[in-house]
Amino acid sequence: MPRRAPYGTWASPLSLDLLVEKTVGVSFPIATTHHIYWTEARPAEGGRLVLVRAPAGGGEAHDVFGPDFNARTLVHEYGGLCAAVSGDTVFFSNFADQRLYRVDPGHKPRPITPEPPSPRAVRFAAPVVTPDGRYVLAVRERHGDPDVPSTVVNDVVVVPTSGDAPPRAVAGGHDFYSHPVVSPDGRRLSWVSWDHPNMPWDGTELWEAELDTSGGFELRHERRVAGGPSESVIQPKYTPQGELVYISDRTGWWNLYAAALDGGTDRPLAPMQADLGAPDWVFGTSSYAVLADGTILAAWSQDGLSHVGTLAPRADAFDEIPSTWTAFAQLRTAGDGRSAVAVAGSASAPPSIVRITPGVPGGEQVVVVKRARERVVDAAYLSEPEPIEFPTERGARAHALFYAPKNPDVDAPIDELPPLIVGIHGGPTSAASAVLNYGIQFWTSRGFAVVDVNYGGSTGYGRAYRERLRGAWGVVDLEDCVNAARHLVESGRVDGDRLLIHGGSAGGYTTLCALTFTDMFAAGASYFGVADAVVFAQTTHKFESRYVDGLFGPWPEAEDVYRARSPAFHTEQLRTPLIVFQGLEDKVVPPDQAEIIVAALSEKGVPHAYVAYEGEQHGFRRAETVRRTAEAELYFYGRVLGFEPADRLEPVEIVHEDRLGT
Question: How far is C-alpha 199 from the chain's CA centre?
């Protein structure tokens, strides 16, 4: 029989060890005729990213290279896709030196780009191999003065796959580049570019040029296909028939289009009020794949959930594929031309590499190749996400995924409501996903409710919703997170006296704003959050150095706005207990941002804890870090709210702990 226990004190089978035990991050699948490749992030190996290869028909997987290599690019600091395959030869960017390497079967990796003038000064991302196998194209990023973002130069380069010549720029002059792609016949090249102050979800341009490799590698007759300063064009691809397809949000939704060849009007493909695209925070986003017969297999987001379906040639609407999977990303055509590989997940299934084969008669159309986790908690302990919509300021409505506490071994006291953790995703132009997340289930199985907020500015709800945050960061996101909590309190689902809030990066900023500018929450946790927007605007890396122009206003003209919305300038209002987590090698949000807040908390006598990690960057990757962070946050909440967790926890030092409850 279930035992009765207060919320927060429940014993959970999802232990601290299980958070990191036998788990990997899976991403960027690539399928050739004979093999399926993917990238594994391995917390047990210090967060090393490994390229893995398995037979396309099923069988044992093997690492492409040994422990001396790490497949990770630092272009835009966030990186992303850094590998390409031609035949059985693999090309990848190595983390240690950021050079491009070539791996032939039975051989060790060898570099095909020169040693950079200083460590990691020349970086490569999104490689693509020409159909004849002679050249690799990639986005290159060159760093001059490491403290001056303006000295960073981005372009598209070509490198002989033999490595017998240095990289040569073929497209340059814009601030940023992404999505290089070559037509199947090797005669055309397309890419996406954009300029400050735009981000890729604000305004980009799609370019195409004729490609001549008969006497080397030359581009001719460049033309702008689509896009502009207020239209986001992303993910160009060529069909096997040579048609250029891309995604644009010109109607307010990221939808598919086919480029006109004769200067006419580009043709919309299956218009819908749903987003097929995703923000290009990393290289390699891919929401669709084109099969050999021209059928498009695509994933789209609607009402906070992901769907997948097919668009047959000359059809005007997608035919959704019935599936228990509720999240799809990174779709790429497989070598057989009849299927695609992707990363998929659901409320009860962890992210997995899958093969999708549409139209299998009487068979399963989505087949698992590799799960991120070998051990999965019994579904009876898993809280399923409930999409909710709630009123917020100025008559608007916002969205979130709500997770109720769930543990079949425990009954809560009948006169008690659960504490609520308000989760805030990063970006801020990103979105909460309905895929199984042990970082959420860790809390719900212990008796916490969690609401994962897709505040105004999040993607998946169209451009207008995304642009609610324009000029209003620190306002709209804060209002929506506060109103998500208020909605759940007023509906009687959570305890209004035990509201908690946490988030990382941009979510950490909103967390700090919530604890500084409101009295709504009992405690919070900031993961590498922005505290001083003035310093952030002046010191962050090139990719985001003008992002805040659209979130606050142009710098320095809008300096008053930056100061007004920066928790660091209003620490006299900060009186809520807070735990701060920070990677000491973070180049996106450097440690001094965390230390500003920690110093203020110390000076004011506010109970707080500061946990900093050597060797961690923006986003924690090491198993010991992930485990310790969850442990410390749970311990901190227990001390603040006055309950004893069931877990045996290593204490974290809480400065001014004697003032808890005063």
Answer: 15
- Is residue 424 within 8 Å of 456, Cβ to Cβ? no
Confirm if 42 and 48 have CB atoms less than 8 A apart: yes
* Cα–Cα–Cα angle for 167, 171, 176, rounded to 5 degrees: 100
Token pair belonging to 308: 């997948």
Q: Are 93 and 69 in contact (CB under 8 A)?
A: no
For the ranges 370-379, 401-410, 596-605, the lowest mean pLDDT is seen at 370-379
CA 353/CA 27 separation, integer angstroms: 7
What residues contact residue 214 under an 8 Å CB cut-off, 6+ apart?
none
Structure-block tokens of residue 124 = 């490569």
Are 470 and 550 contacting, i.e. CB atoms less than 8 angstroms apart? Answer: yes
Cα 1 versus chain centre, distance: 41
Nearest to 115 by CA among 62, 51, 167: 167
The pLDDT-based confidence of 303 (bands split at 50, 70, 90) is: confident
Segment 435-464, tens digit of pLDDT: 899 999 999 999 999 999 999 999 999 999
Q: Where are the alpha helices (DSSP H) in 364-520?
A: 438-444, 463-466, 476-490, 506-517
Residue range 488-501: mean pLDDT, rounded: 98
Positions of E strands within 5-121: 25-31, 35-42, 48-55, 62-63, 83-86, 89-93, 100-103, 110-111
Residue-by-residue DSSP string for 242-282: S-EEEEE-TTSS-EEEE--SSSSPPEEES--SSB-----SS
The model's pLDDT over 177-224, given as tens digits with 9 standing for 90+, comes to 999 999 999 999 999 999 999 999 999 999 999 999 887 899 999 999
Name the CATH superfamily housing domain 377-659.
Answer: Alpha/Beta hydrolase fold, catalytic domain (3.40.50.1820)
Residue-range domain boundaries for the chain: 15-40+288-376, 377-659
Per DSSP, what are the bridge partners of residue 335? none
pTM of the model: 0.94
- Taking alpha carbons only, the member of 556, 470, 481 closest to residue 518 is 481
C-alpha to C-alpha distance for 300 and 278, rounded to whole angstroms: 9
**Beta carbons within 10 angstroms of residue 384's beta carbon:** 17
Q: How far apart are the C-alpha atoms of 105 and 34, rounded to whole Å? A: 13
Whether the ω angle into residue 197 lies within 30 degrees of 0, i.e. cis, is: yes
Measure the CA–CA gap between 328 and 349, rounded to whole angstroms: 12
CA distances from 512 to 119, 416, 480, 552 (A): 34, 28, 15, 16
* ∠ CA 234-255-464, rounded to 5°: 90
Position of tokens 């966030």?
A: 78
Mean pLDDT of the chain: 94
Hey, what are 601's tokens?
């908390």
3-state helix, strand, coil in the chain (%, to 5): 20, 35, 50
